[in-house]
Amino acid sequence: MTAQAPAPPSAPPRTPPRHLTGRGRLVGLLVGAAILALACVASLAIGTETVSLPTVWQALTDYRDVGDQWIVHDLRIPRTVLALLVGLALGLSGTLIQAVGRNPLADSEILGINSGAALFVVCAITFLGLTGIWTYIWFAFAGALFAMVLVYLVGMTGRATVTPVRVLLAGVAVGAVMDGIGFAVRLRNPRAFDNMRFWDAGALDERSLEVAGAIAPFIVVGAVLCLIVARSLNVTALGDDLAKSMGGNVARTQAISLVAVTLLAGAATAGAGPIGFVGLMVPHAVRRLTGPDWRWILAYACVFAPALLLAADIAGRVVIRPSELPAGIVTAFIGAPVLIWLIRKRGADRS
């Protein structure tokens, strides 16, 4: 009688992650709000020239154009307000894309949505001579919607099953094509290229409060739409068939989310240029705290996404003083390794 070979030792069971619950989620949200407030103060004080906190306070409460107060009043307040709005828009749009598309590797930059908005703005400035944000912002919305629809049409072609990876690859391809066309248009028209240079790399400087005021209404409407669909996102994330069996209106949720992402991504790109990875990193980071409840993920994204963008902007100001790195480049340095880690992690989970 032959001896039976011992069975290989089984892998130890994975310990499920522990998430905040109940009052802990609210405390975490308040901590995030405090971090955001500190980031705003740092954004007003830190830069190529550091301004003291008393001077910052005087510029905010009793501006008299004395000393360095003009730096805070004229340069950093508009920059900080724009970062708050753009960060909010990118965080909410990325969360919606991941929830409705059930694609944890997506955000508006990776799927080419920001590239579509930027391309349409470039064409509006080059061929129509539109230079004011109140005129070309509508082209940003049209470009974001066009790119979003095109990506999902490309991802659904062929007989293979539509998967998050197929949609991701389609977004990267469509975004690359639109970026190439945009660069070609700018190189053929140097004047339009000069007009686009200030936001071409996703920079937040050289903006007036008029820019923030122009995009703010659309971001507010997009945020309200997020509130409308927040409750139904948890059901929609379970899949179309299961969501319908539970009484969820999948078509309504997807339609409202489409409008919200168009407004949020289009307004953010029109105001600050194409800034990527904020909408990818923040939902993944806060999900470790909130768990899979999309209502809390949206709430946390409202504070942590602007804080991340402000931190990236501050880092860009000081890392190569006296010059600056645009915030979009800093977020790319951080976000690209995060995307690689997420892809490798998903592959390991499936093996």
From TrEMBL:
Its main location: membrane. GO terms for cellular component: plasma membrane. GO terms for biological process: siderophore-iron import into cell. Keywords: Cell membrane, Membrane, Transmembrane, Transmembrane helix, Transport. The keyword Repeat does not apply. The chain crosses the membrane at residues 26-46, 80-99, 111-130, 136-155, 167-187, 214-234, 255-282, 294-312, 324-343. One of its GO terms (molecular function) is transmembrane transporter activity. It is a multi-pass membrane protein. Belongs to the binding-protein-dependent transport system permease family. FecCD subfamily. This is Iron ABC transporter permease. It comes from Mycolicibacterium sediminis. The lineage of its organism: Bacteria, Bacillati, Actinomycetota, Actinomycetes, Mycobacteriales.
